[in-house]
């Protein structure tokens, strides 16, 4: 998958084994996220906040191979605030077996209005 | 004798040249200090009607954050709007298009409502959309692409040439749009645009206000773009989205998160 060599096998739910599907690209994964009860994702801010907004339990797996690894900053900060779990490829299994989704704190979405207010004030527009 | 005169006159003219150079540099330094300090005061004594605005989009997360800001801004205060994204990035401009279309939808719905109400009740946000007006005029948005100075993995030797092309292109776009407001939030493409905007201010070509919102992904350290704008005093207001960063960079503003 991606640039890797491993290709999963698609399967339907049979004999108690879970259904398995995959795709390499989707312009919008919102529907997949909505139907999920657990999301395991890379550390991109788009994926993280899209999942948190839906209130789904989330495990972020940080790619340690990236050179300038500022991406882990966000995942670690949000994990510290108990909004998600942050794992490394080696610790993912342990994270899944130890996790308690009930202990996660729902993320309160941010608000851009205070930024807009400061911009208005700076430019001399009356405030809302 | 003649030779001596010549020497004296060349010495005199070189002295004048040196004095002129010192004069020009001093003026420039004074002007730069003025431009930098001007940032802290409100720009207009009266409230402006609307300001032409350049919006620099980056890929993925950057664009999502910028759109969250645009959704709460009163767009009639920021027009015309010029969107710029890297030439290799098609998704961002598409998303900006969707945003502009949604504004248009709101305007048209408002106009239809106004017509039903006979226009007299509709002073709302001062928006009037006569039916005959073309959609482009209503929206007041333009979409542009900019060359990147260096693609990921490009060699350093060829990147000298592409950087020059990118700077020339940025200059051309800035001359064409001459924005009064610049909104950017992270991609490296905003740096040449902001530097040119700053030079325009120093040279008195165009006064603009630069607003930079650091990406929410930056928790402990500013990005290179953010750090440059902060250290060089180029951003009029620089926002960070985490309190830790505000502690580290006291001149930044922290008023919550965009996402």
TrEMBL record, chain A:
Record SUPFAM superfamilies: UDP-Glycosyltransferase/glycogen phosphorylase
Pfam families cross-referenced by the UniProt entry: Glyco_tran_28_C
GO biological process terms held by the UniProt record: dolichol-linked oligosaccharide biosynthetic process
All residue ranges annotated as the Glycosyl transferase family 28 C-terminal domain in the record: 5-115
GO CC annotations on file: UDP-N-acetylglucosamine transferase complex
TM spans (from-to): none
Superkingdom of source: Eukaryota
Molecular functions (GO terms): hexosyltransferase activity
Name of the molecule in the record: Glycosyl transferase family 28 C-terminal domain-containing protein
Taxonomic lineage: Eukaryota, Viridiplantae, Streptophyta, Embryophyta, Tracheophyta
TrEMBL record, chain B:
Location(s), subcellular: Endoplasmic reticulum membrane
Principal location: endoplasmic reticulum
Any single GO BP term: dolichol-linked oligosaccharide biosynthetic process
Domain of life, source organism: Eukaryota
Topology in the lipid bilayer: Single-pass membrane protein
UniProt keywords, alphabetically: Endoplasmic reticulum, Membrane, Transmembrane, Transmembrane helix
Pfam families according to UniProt: Alg14
Database matches in InterPro entries: Oligosacch_biosynth_Alg14
TM annotation in the entry: 16-36, 156-175, 195-213
Gene3D superfamilies found in the cross-reference section: Glycogen Phosphorylase B
One GO term describing the cellular component: UDP-N-acetylglucosamine transferase complex
PANTHER family: GLYCOSYL TRANSFERASE-RELATED (PTHR12154), UDP-N-ACETYLGLUCOSAMINE TRANSFERASE SUBUNIT ALG14 HOMOLOG (PTHR12154:SF4)
Similarity comment: family membership: Belongs to the ALG14 family.
Protein name: UDP-N-acetylglucosamine transferase subunit ALG14
Organism: Solanum lycopersicum (Tomato)
């Amino acid at each position: 998958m991606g640039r890797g060599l491993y290709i999963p096998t698609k399967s339907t739910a049979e004999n108690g084994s879970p259904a398995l599907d995959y795709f390499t690209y989707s312009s919008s994964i919102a529907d997949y996220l909505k139907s999920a009860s657990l999301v395991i994702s890379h550390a991109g801010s788009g994926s993280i906040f899209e999942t948190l907004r839906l209130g789904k339990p989330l495990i972020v797996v940080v790619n340690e191979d990236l050179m300038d690894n500022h991406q882990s900053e966000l995942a670690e900060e949000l994990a510290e605030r108990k909004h998600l779990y942050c794992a490394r490829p080696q610790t993912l299994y342990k994270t899944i077996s130890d996790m308690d989704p009930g202990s996660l704190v729902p993320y309160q979405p941010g608000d851009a209005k205070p930024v807009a207010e400061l911009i208005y004030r700076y430019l001399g527009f009356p405030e809302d | 004798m003649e030779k001596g005169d010549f020497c004296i006159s060349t010495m005199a003219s070189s002295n004048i040249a040196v004095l002129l150079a010192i004069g020009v540099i001093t003026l420039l330094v004074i002007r730069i200090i003025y431009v930098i300090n001007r940032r802290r005061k409100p720009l207009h004594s009266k409230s402006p009607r609307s300001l032409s605005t350049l919006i620099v989009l980056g890929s993925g997360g950057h664009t999502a954050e910028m759109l969250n800001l645009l959704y709460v801004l009163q767009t009639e205060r920021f027009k015309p709007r010029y969107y710029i994204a890297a030439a290799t990035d098609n998704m961002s401009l598409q998303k900006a298009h969707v945003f502009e279309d949604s504004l248009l939808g709101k305007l048209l719905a408002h106009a239809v409502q106004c017509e039903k109400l006979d226009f007299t009740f509709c002073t709302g946000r001062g928006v009037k959309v006569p039916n005959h007006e073309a959609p482009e005029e209503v929206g007041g948005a333009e979409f542009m692409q900019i060359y990147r100075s260096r693609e990921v993995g490009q060699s350093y030797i060829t990147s000298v040439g592409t950087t020059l092309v990118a700077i020339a292109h940025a200059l051309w776009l800035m001359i064409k749009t001459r924005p009064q407001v610049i909104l950017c939030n992270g991609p490296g493409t905003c740096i040449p645009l902001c530097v040119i905007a700053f030079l325009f201010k120093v040279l008195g070509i165009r006064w603009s206000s630069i607003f930079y919102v650091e990406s929410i992904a930056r928790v402990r350290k500013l990005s290179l773009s953010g750090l440059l704008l902060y250290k060089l005093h180029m951003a009029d207001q620089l926002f960070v989205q985490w309190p830790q960063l505000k502690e580290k960079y006291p001149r930044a503003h922290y008023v919550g998160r965009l996402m």
